[in-house]
Amino acid sequence: MFPRAIELNSQTIKVKKYYENTDTSYQSWGNNNAYAMHYGYYDSKVQNHIDSLVEINQQISRTAKLKKGSKILDAGCGVGASSFWLARQFSCKVTGISIADHQVRKAKSTAKREGLQKLTEFQVQDFNQLSFPDNSFDVVWAQESYCHSENMTLTIKEANRVLKVGGLLIVADCFLVNNFIPSWQKMYLNFWMNGWAIPKLETAGSFYKTLTKNNFRVERKRDITSNIIPSSQEIYSRAIENQKEKRNHIQVQHTNSCIYQKKCLDLNLWKYLIFISKKLP
Ligand SMILES: C[S@@+](CC[C@H](N)C(=O)[O-])C[C@H]1O[C@@H](n2cnc3c(N)ncnc32)[C@H](O)[C@@H]1O
């Protein structure tokens, strides 16, 4: 099947431009060819940055009780780090999609280099208007990608459509602690969100409602905020070091966001949650 042409809107254009301009920064974060573009998970056993980026995948898939051989859609796959990990770990077929063509190109060439072409495929697609038929996947894996959605109802409906009945929607992302935020703290939040092309953050409560209104049952919800704190600190420290580099305005705003995500976490404005939801008949 050929992917259909994608209609970009102002939000997807913003996201695409953001990732095109910040590729070097994410590359140095992930530290290899298929660089991870997400927070890392720390605990008593995992204490270094690179291991933490892999451990979070382990934690998410364990929380979901992921099974071998599942057909997975990695919705917002970056350059495929988690897609490759899932394919290897669970011997499963993974389709990764991203709105950013350069990421898809990179993921495809990594798949070729690593001999993972049979298990993985990558396409430029919008997770709000997927080209896949109904009931195509056992799992939709959305790791730090749905935060870019400006219409969560549409995003969740589309995930529901492409999932088989009984299939799992896995969302690991940042959520607002609550909506009652003093204006100066709102300013901090806006600095962070604008620079990372995040239009708005859901609260756990609003997200839960959207899921349950759209034919999902929430199976598990896990708060791993305390485990990602060192990763948030790492993002902050790197940004402080790089602040003086000459860059364009998108890159400057990105660096500021790297600083403000930590300030907002210190103010308890957001938390990191894993939601596991099942598609109902
Ligand atoms: C922070 S990165 C996370 C990438 C990957 N999940 C990971 O953990 O390494 C967010 C990803 O979501 C993708 N994305 C954002 N909005 C999207 C949309 N509407 N459709 C498809 N992908 C989207 C971005 O292009 C990017 O690849």
Report on the structure:
It comes from Uabimicrobium amorphum. This protein is an alpha/beta fold and 281 residues long. It has one domain (10-177, 200-225, 271-279): Rossmann fold, CATH 3.40.50.150. 46% of the residues lie in helices and 20% in strands. It has helices spanning 10-21, 23-30, 49-64, 81-90, 101-113, 152-162, 183-195, 204-213, 225-242, 249-266; strands spanning 71-75, 93-98, 120-124, 137-143, 163-176, 216-223, 270-279. It has a seven-stranded mixed β-sheet with strand order 3-2-1-4-5-7-6, with helices on both faces. Strand 4 (137-143), helix 6 (152-162) and strand 5 form a beta-alpha-beta unit. The radius of gyration is 18 Å and the shape is globular. The structure holds S-adenosylmethionine.
